[in-house]
Every structure is written in structure tokens, then in C-alpha cells.
Design goal:
The structure holds two protein chains of two kinds.
Chain A (H helix, E strand, L loop, with lengths): L2 H11 L8 H13 L1 H20 L7 H12 L12 H24 L6 H14 E2 L2 E2 L9
Antiparallel strand pairs in A: 1-2
Chain B lengths: L3 E4 L25 E4 L6 H9 L3 H23 L4 H16 L10 H25 L21 H13 L3 H11 L5 H8 L3 H27 L1
Antiparallel strand pairs in B: 1-2
The chains are: A mainly alpha, B mainly alpha.
């Protein structure tokens, strides 16, 4: 085992050799015993583990916090089913959005690209709405009525 | 499930010291029976009672898991007052959604941890947004630089590591803290964080490397 490999193993398995795979453990022990750099690396890793373990020791749950939590129940936060967006809801919403976009794009492609008022009126209102008594429903100025 | 049924008249005598002085609480069992909470009741039994709206079972769950979750929140937030908010929100969320937890699934502790981690990461994200828009000052991360002649002790290691942990990215922070809590297996951490085991391993390797390097740099600074 080399120093680099020791560092990788330390980062992966931590600073307690008991949690290491047996094969790596023997090699690491030999390296640590004979190399000061390796020993220093392992010492830091072990101290790190110790500090983290102490950091995560349960803290006291004082009466103030307990009272605050229970008060949350009394302050209108009654037992109820929380409505939270689930992954499925988000997936459905995303799919619907994509479907709307694709549909809009398809409709956009299907529409005639014309500026002619009669054609636009026909598309929007149909044949009957586009003309009145056989005449196109346009004003004198030519705009759609 | 070890629940004991007792007449409601005996209720005042059965109030535990931890709950003395608390506001009146709802109990299950109807007008004539009150169901007491015992320290021997399993988490599963208590959770089922919480799902039915039993305040006393809820308090017992808070008592059992509150200290652990408070330590997690405290270390995650770097010791800010937000830690207690996370703990409160976690338990209130559990109160509202207790019916979702099913016996036979993840243990109640893991379920609560998952809620707490999600709350903590969400809070961290919101805090970053607020800081980005200048709505909140950056939290000062503790980074103690001890005098060179002071002997390195475990307490100073704890202070230094706590500061370094608070500066990690949120997911790395959550993973390394969960890992440190009782040597929790990576699969369980993945369950709590909603990640695969491989993703957890990557987070842990990055976090450990960062923390180890910073601790080593600190040592080198003290020696130099």
C-alpha cells in the first residue's frame, strides 16, 4: 500500500481500522507502523472520527424546546393530513406541461401562415362566420369585423 | 404493543415527571379510559397512537428522539438558533403525517431523521437564496485557530471539526453527520437522504477528505 492508497482508504472507510476490509487493514497497519507520513494521516483521520462521534452525541431536550413543540400542536396545528407535492405529482405536472408545449407547437405549425383576414376568420370562426350572406365580413377599411 | 388501560380517575397519578406542568393533552380511549404511555412501549406502538391523535404518545416520541435530532440539527446548522426550528418542524411534520409511517418499513428513528434532514437541507437552500438576495447575513462559521503552544485536545478538535462541517455543502454535511451517528450504515443514510448507496459513498469520501485536509492544515499551521 502506498500513501495515496492509504488516503483513499481513509476517506472511504474512516479512521477506525476495525471498519476496514481485512485485506486492506493488514497493509495499512504495516504502512502506518513504518511511515511517519502514513501515521500522521491516520492520526488525523482517527481524530476526525472521534470529533464527529462526539459532535453527534444526543443533546439535552430541555423543557423549553419540549414546550415549544407541544405548543405547536395546541396552536392550531391539529392532526391533519399534510398536502405535499409528491414525485408523482411533479412528474404528472411536467408531463402535462410538455404535452401542452408540443400541442401548441403542432397547432402553430398547422395554422396557415397568412395575413389574409378572410383566411384567419375562417380558421377562427369557420366558414359561416367568415362571410355574411356570401360577402366577406370586413369593414370598409378591410379589417375583420 | 404494551399499552396499559387505566380508569380516567387515575390519570393525575400517572403523569410522568417529564410531563408535569404540561398543558392538558388529548388522550385516546374514550371518556372512561386513558391509555398511559410507558417507556417500554415500542416506537411502533407509539407511532400508531400518534397517528390516532394521542398527544402523550407524541411527547414520548419527542422525548426519545428529540436529543438525537437536536444534535443533528445543531451540527448541521453550525449551532444557530435555526436548529431548534428544524427539530420543532420535524416533530410537527410527524404529528401531521404519522399515518404515513407504516410498521415494517423504515424504523421510526430513520423516518424522523429523514424528515429532519429534508428540513435542514431545504432550510439551507432557502438561506442561500436569502443570502444571495441580501436578505440575510452569512452565518459566521466557527474556525478556531488555536495558539501554537496550546496542546491539541479533543475539545479543540470538536470545535474545529464542527466549524469545518458547517462549511461543507449541505448534502455532504448531512451524510457525514448521519455517518458519525452510531456508525450508521451507508444504506440507512441513503434511505434517510433519498439517495443511492453509491451516491452516499461519494458524498462521504468528499466530506471526509475535505475535513481531514482542513484538520491537517490546521495542525500544520499550529506547528509552523
Amino acid at each position: 500500500m502506498k500513501i495515496k492508497e492509504l488516503e483513499q482508504a481513509v476517506d472511504r472507510f474512516g479512521g477506525a481500522l476495525g471498519r476496514w476490509p481485512t485485506t486492506l487493514r493488514a497493509e495499512a497497519e504495516a504502512l502506518i507502523a513504518n511511515d511517519r507520513t502514513a501515521a500522521a494521516i491516520f492520526d488525523v483521520a482517527a481524530r476526525l472520527d472521534g470529533a464527529l462521534a462526539r459532535a453527534m452525541e444526543p443533546m439535552a431536550l430541555d423543557a423549553a424546546l419540549m414546550g415549544r413543540i407541544v405548543a405547536g400542536l395546541d396552536n392550531g396545528l391539529h392532526h391533519q393530513v399534510a398536502v405535499r407535492p409528491t414525485r408523482r405529482l411533479v412528474a404528472w405536472a411536467g408531463a402535462a406541461m410538455v404535452a401542452f408545449l408540443v400541442t401548441g407547437y403542432a397547432v402553430g405549425l398547422a395554422l396557415p401562415t397568412t395575413q389574409d383576414d378572410d383566411t384567419i376568420a375562417t380558421v377562427i370562426f369557420g366558414d359561416s362566420a367568415a362571410s355574411v350572406d356570401g360577402n366577406t365580413a370586413t369593414s370598409d377599411s378591410g379589417s375583420l369585423l | 404493543m404494551s399499552m396499559s388501560l387505566a380508569p380516567a380517575a387515575m390519570w393525575p397519578m400517572m403523569v410522568s415527571p417529564a410531563s408535569a406542568g404540561a398543558p392538558p393533552r388529548q388522550t385516546t380511549g374514550g371518556p372512561f379510559l386513558a391509555i398511559t404511555v410507558s417507556a417500554e412501549d415500542s416506537d411502533e406502538a407509539l407511532a400508531l397512537r400518534v397517528a390516532a391523535g394521542d398527544n402523550r404518545a407524541f411527547r414520548e416520541i419527542v422525548r426519545r428522539h428529540g436529543g438525537r435530532l437536536r444534535a443533528l440539527a445543531h451540527r448541521f446548522t453550525g449551532g444557530t438558533s435555526e436548529a431548534d426550528d428544524i427539530v420543532q418542524e420535524t416533530f410537527l411534520s410527524f404529528w401531521r403525517t404519522a399515518a404515513r409511517w407504516q410498521p415494517g418499513g423504515p424504523p421510526l428513528g430513520a423516518y424522523l431523521t429523514r424528515i429532519a434532514v429534508n428540513r435542514a437541507i431545504d432550510g439551507d437552500r432557502r438561506r442561500k437564496v436569502r443570502r444571495f438576495f441580501g436578505l440575510e447575513d452569512a452565518t459566521e462559521v466557527i474556525d478556531p485557530q488555536a495558539p501554537a503552544d496550546e496542546q491539541l485536545g479533543s475539545k479543540r478538535d470538536l470545535e474545529a471539526v464542527s466549524g469545518y462541517v458547517a462549511a461543507l455543502p449541505a448534502r455532504q454535511r448531512a451524510a457525514i453527520l448521519l455517518s458519525a451517528e452510531g456508525e450508521r450504515p451507508n444504506a440507512e443514510i441513503g434511505e434517510a437522504m433519498g439517495l443511492s448507496v453509491g451516491a452516499v459513498e461519494q458524498l462521504l469520501v468528499r466530506a471526509r477528505r475535505t475535513l481531514r485536509m482542513r484538520l491537517a492544515q490546521r495542525d500544520a499551521g499550529r506547528e509552523g
